[in-house]
């Protein structure tokens, strides 16, 4: 079955002012929607980052795939390598770790791989989870992903989530998400306030939710010494501590001196990082993300490899839409080694989506695996058109939390480590 056409559509959707170590989310988040069309009339969907340099690479690669067989992932990967050339896309927002050539290729390849799996599932009349080995769970549990946040973007009215700038605000936010979605674990995005305040916030969450596993992720905003202090202060409280310090070496210095496992989506982000991280014992948990680990099949292989070396698995998320949520859910449903609840930004999208409603929902904090053929989601063409128009008008072309924050606080610095 040959690829006859590929449509690449950038979209923008509203995003609340979520705070992190790099700054604050802009009013618009960007994604790119990929549609692969075959000579047999089947269409497959993929979703990836919307930043302009990445979008250009996805567009270039799309042109080079025409005529290839959707079953020939190796040929598609080779075409993406040729199309990317020697380039390395640098992560300008600074939250997803080191950039390498292999990671750039994997990021560009991923939406095409997902779209081809969607097509193969549709052709076989089977859900993607069956192409990945079949279900080990019927529904994929996600965590309540808490952020410190302003009440609204400056100059705009308060948004529906309200402010969360202290422990009480975060507990309130957790109640809102747990009440609405039923999440059974909680992640706090830290690296925003001095560590002592974030420790207080975690302790307040522990008191309010004694049974929910808790994680804290300051996106490498702390020094080795600070990371050790915080880790020890939260002994018995955290399920894992995510990216406290920057880089494999620093993480390896922290790991043996804190009581909980360290997790990462920043220092191990491509297969080249694994040998050093394993040798140095830098991490106990890897947050998989098919958007940069080269799609669903490669992510599943990475999961097996990690288990071999005693590394547990969870899943990372950036602001995303329903095609990604469907892909994440199929992957996690087919991957026994993912034993921690996955991250998702979905609640922050507040119902905005490019997929038709109905296929994806949360039940007790988990998304039941869509059982239709392929990814099991359909594109809502009207929503896609609206979001594409928003992209054209919004003026944002690459995520830049730091410059947006500096427009309100010129003294803000995203330096690492900050504390
Ligand atoms: O959305 O601000 C955010 C997050 O900080 C995201 O960009 C990170 O990549 O969620 C991510 C993480 O776990 O580091
Ligand atoms: Mg993280």
Describe the protein's architecture and organization.
The strands form 4 sheets. A 7-stranded parallel beta sheet has the order 7-8-9-10-11-12-13, with helices on one face. Strands 1-4-5 form a 3-stranded antiparallel beta sheet. Strands 2-3 form a two-stranded antiparallel ribbon. Helix 1 (52-64) crosses helix 2, helix 1 (52-64) crosses helix 3 and helix 5 packs across helix 6 (195-208). Helices cover 36% and strands 16% of the residues. 54% of the residues are buried. It has helices at residues 52-64, 73-84, 101-124, 128-131, 167-181, 195-208, 224-233, 248-254, 274-280, 295-308, 322-333, 381-394, 401-406, and strands at residues 3-14, 19-20, 23-24, 28-38, 43-49, 139-141, 144-147, 186-189, 214-217, 238-242, 262-264, 285-288, 312-315, 366-368. It is globular. It has 2 domains: 3-125 and 381-394, Enolase-like, domain 1, CATH 3.30.390; 130-368, Alpha-Beta Barrel (TIM Barrel), CATH 3.20.20. D-glucarate (GKR) binds at residues 18, 20, 95-96, 189, 217, 219, 265, 316-319.
Which terms would index this structure?
single chain, 419 residues, alpha/beta, Enolase-like, domain 1, TIM Barrel, 2 domains, 7-stranded parallel β-sheet, 3-stranded antiparallel β-sheet, 13 helices, 16% strand, binds D-glucarate, binds magnesium ion
